[in-house]
Specification:
The chain is mostly helical. Helix content is about 80%, strand content about 5%. The chain folds into two domains: about 60 residues; about 80 residues. Strands 1-2 form a two-stranded antiparallel sheet. Helix 3 packs across helix 4. The two termini are about 40 Å apart.
């Protein structure tokens, strides 16, 4: 396992060094912001692939924990689906008649807001429940 940690440290150092170099080159106007944005996308992609890979590896090695994790994912998908169904597909326009959001965009953004409100209420409720239940123990 030590070899893996050393490899990960080397990869992390290389990515950090390259990011610092690109930042300096951008500060001295050697590279454009397009390259910097592309690098950020690449870093996000690496993070997503690493997260999904290690999550799937962890689920494969411990199926009992995978069951509880999959239940959480299913609950999240159900909340998102319910939020999408609850949202309206009203077309929004400004006073000049320009369309600001078409039906699909409006429904997706409103569904996202509803899901955010539901998840926020669940988070606050679980915090309150945890604190109140500690008082009675």
């Amino acid at each position: 396992m030590s070899d893996n940690n050393k490899l990960f440290s080397i990869i992390l150092g290389a990515l950090l060094g390259l990011s610092a170099l690109l930042s300096l080159l951008f500060a001295f106007d050697v590279v454009s912001e397009g390259l910097l944005i592309t690098w950020c996308y690449a870093l996000i992609g690496i993070a997503v692939v690493a997260t999904l890979g290690f999550s799937l590896l962890g689920m494969a090695t411990n199926p009992k924990k995978a069951k509880s994790a999959l239940i959480g994912v299913v609950v999240l998908v159900v909340i998102c689906a319910v939020s999408y169904v609850m949202s309206s597909d009203e077309v929004h326009s400004n006073i000049d008649g320009e369309i600001l959001a078409d039906a699909g965009t409006s429904q997706l953004s409103e569904g996202g807001l509803i899901a955010f409100y539901i998840l926020g209420a669940v988070a606050i409720g679980s915090i309150v429940f945890a604190e109140v239940s500690k008082m009675f123990k």
